[in-house]
Amino acid sequence: MGEIKPGYIRTLDIKRGRVDMSHGSGGRAMAQLIEELFAAALGNEFLAQGDDGALLPPANGRLVMATDSHVVSPLFFPGGDIGCLSVHGTINDVAVMGAKPLYLSASFILEEGFPLIDLKRIVDSMAQASIEAGVPIVTGDTKVVEQGKGDGVFITTTGVGVAREGIRLSGSLARPGDKILLSGTIGDHGMAILSKREGLAFEAPIVSDTAALHGLIAAMLDSGAAIRTLRDPTRGGVATTLNEIAKQSHVGMMLREAAIPVNQPVEAACEFLGLDPLYVANEGKLIAICAPDDADKLLAAMHEHPLGQQAAIVGEVLEDAHGFVQMTTRMGGRRIVDWLTGEQLPRIC
Amino acid sequence: MCLAIPARVEEMTGADTAIVNLGGVRKEISLALVEDVAVGDYVIVHVGYALQKLDPEEAERTLLMFAEMGDLDELRTELQDSAL
Amino acid sequence: MKYIDEFRDGELAKNISANIANEARDGQQYNLMEFCGGHTHAISRYGLSDLLPPQVTMIHGPGCPVCVLPIGRVDHAIKLALEHDVILCTYGDCLRVPASEGLSLLKAKARGADVRMVYSTSDAIKLAQANPEKQVVFFAIGFETTTPPTAVAIQQAQRLGLKNFSVICNHVLTPAAMHAILANEGGARLHGFVGPAHVSTVIGSRPYEVFANDYKKPVVIAGFEPLDVMQAILMLVRQVNDGRAEVENEFTRAVTREGNLKAQALVDEIFELRDEFEWRGLGTIPYSALKLKAAYAEFDAELRFGLKYQSVPDNKACECGAILRGEKRPQQCKIFGTVCTPENPVGACMVSSEGACAAHYTYGRFKDIAVMAA
């Protein structure tokens, strides 16, 4: 009897291939997709274990876990894509808890017909983001849904980290007198997305600010400033996040419009569409609330870091049973910065 | 009730269309409702249409008006009255 | 941003504010109506009432086309979208307006209706060209600023020979509404109007002369930026002090007495006056709205789809009528801020972000309650 020749398996046709139902069925096609596309890009010692779950070393401290689903459209936008967005988003959710992000998982729901070349682009982007951040993707999952039941691809990432000893950060800890800081310009991500939306297309030098903030946060915690709260203002913008914190802490806030950093093209794009940058999503910024005496020290530490160079003190926390977030406008009058009502839509009036 | 913005005409793209620029944001809009618009002009844009050309001299005059000190005549009269 | 930033200068605001405070006479009340919703929004968004002396009261007018759009007209659009399988194009402002049966255009979309938000009427034309097998209907709303763009689209549709494009026309007229305000007791108590910015770029300052000459009410047309509004208020205070009733123009950089004649001519070509039109909160006003002329009947969606208007009354507790006429303030409505909020708008004034109630709720309701600073 002769040797059993190894069967010939055609490699994935990345250039012209598309996701089909067999890729989600658990069989050979799915294994091939995982090996040739996912593992090849994301490859690390944990994924290489090849088991249903990743066996991780013991953690020395309290665990923090966070999860986020990503359904952004368009999938590719100026400054990023759904891939790096999903990595940054979950790293940030863990990091704002005052924890060092250690591991990520990634689940994909793929729509039948989704081009493999786009999938590769997304996965490569995730790999790059993960490597740059130093946080490996250690386990994952893939499912395929019928054409029409997805938006190309949905990604869910979950992150695990270890909390710093002695640090407790929470939206419930803001106190009257505390200072409110922003790490940089607002509205970049949301307007970058909008600029590519059909029907609203405009040309603008606006780039999403999607970024992993754990390095900046580590620098901020290292500064020794007494930080009460850290949060990243994603959907709903800075206004929504501040209102959430005000509610959690049962306090009010007073912001200074003139102190809030906004890039001019973002401001201009908002003018065109009748939007308020305070309600536009950010993906690489954070809000910090800290003790008043430490605000300058914290600001200096943020300025030292590449992601905090335009950081600014934008307001303070007040005693207010009603939890209003107020703002002194650049005209000198006062107004509330209220919760967002539904989705902010471009208007003609 | 009508959101409109002043933008600079940057490039003519057709008989009736142009690209305008506001703070670095460029968008193609229609010139069907205005006449004699040239590159460099500023127009008021509403829902993708230029509605009117902006008059730079009048804009300057208006800004100067904002900076005017109040009704000096009344003050002068008061001072005169009190001096009598 | 040129022609925007300079008109938002905080230092100049202080100067104008000081002028107003100096010149507003003790014991004299100045009840000024800013007609335009955009001005209402600017006043609220920048907190301009903090810069005015107590004698000056800003009363919010009905110049908000979404607010004054009757529920029955929104029902038309929803019906077309759900029952006639059209591509319904609308500006973003209309998407969340609650209509009959708990529906809105956004909710209709969730039920499978093809509702598309557009930035411009030209986008609706493009949709009609790209989808020849479908009917594309544009839901047109707005005062005189927004009417010319609809006219251009209809003209374009005719030139292109489009058989699948039509318009539901809800365009309304500013002077007609101002007459309606002045015919009521709220109007009698007004000392003057801040006239709309962009409506005036189209219609000019001339149409307001009747209010100065016949009703003896000063009108100052103001630009869109906060400094424009402040300066216009100062000019109105001066008119009241001097006993004058004139039409003055603060927005000279974009408004002339004649307005945009090319736009006016195009509107006259395509549209004609409706005998009457129901305005939410203001009731039925004669010669206050437009419809397509017979020559353009093929683009009239009401004719093409046989839409019959059914008036839907507002909630009994809703005080929008009185608020739109300037007779009551949002806080005086029993359901303001409780049952009726921007999330669940019951009446016209809460439906759009520049309606008097929405603006007050979103930007100013903290003034109704005392707040202590740390």
Question: What's the quick description here?
Answer:
Chain A has 349 residues and is an alpha+beta fold. In chain A, 29% of the residues lie in helices and 22% in strands. The longest helix of chain A is centred in the middle third of the chain and has 18 residues, at 116-133.
The chain-level mean pLDDT of chain C equals: 93
Tell me, rounded to a whole number, the average pLDDT of chain B: 88
What's the CATH first level of the largest domain in chain C? Alpha Beta
Strand order of the largest sheet of chain C: 2-1-7-8-9
Identify the CATH homologous superfamily of the largest domain in chain C: HypD, alpha/beta domain 2
> Element order, helices and strands of chain C?
HEHEHEHEHEHEHHEHHEHEHEEEEHHHH
Strand percent estimate of chain B:
35-45%
Q: What structural category do the secondary elements of chain B indicate?
A: alpha+beta
Helicity level of chain B: 25-40%
Features:
heterotrimer; A: about 350 residues; alpha+beta; 60s Ribosomal Protein L30, Chain: A; Phosphoribosyl-aminoimidazole Synthetase, Chain A, domain 2; four-stranded mixed beta sheet; about 30% helix; globular; C: alpha/beta; Rossmann fold; 16 helices; disordered C terminus
Describe the structure.
The complex is a heterotrimer of chains A (349), B (84) and C (374). Chain A has helices at 28-42, 45-48, 82-95, 116-133, 188-194, 214-222, 237-249, 264-273, 295-304; strands at 63-70, 76-77, 80-81, 99-111, 137-145, 153-163, 179-182, 227-231, 252-256, 287-290, 312-318, 325-328, 334-336. By secondary structure, chain A is α+β, with helices and mostly antiparallel strands. In chain A, 51% of the residues are buried. Chain B is of the alpha+beta class. Chain B has one domain (5-83): SH3 type barrels (Roll). Chain C is of the alpha/beta class and 374 residues long. Chain C has 16 helices and 13 strands. Chain C has helices at 10-23, 37-45, 71-83, 105-110, 121-130, 147-160, 174-182, 185-188, 198-203, 209-213, 226-242, 261-270, 301-304, 320-324, 348-351, 356-364; strands at residues 30-36, 56-63, 87-90, 114-117, 136-142, 165-171, 192-195, 219-221, 247-249, 271-273, 276-279, 283-286, 290-292. The chains are: A alpha+beta (349), B alpha+beta (84), C alpha/beta (374). Chains in contact: A-B, A-C, B-C. Chains A and C meet through α8, β11 and β13 of A and α1, α2 and α16 of C.
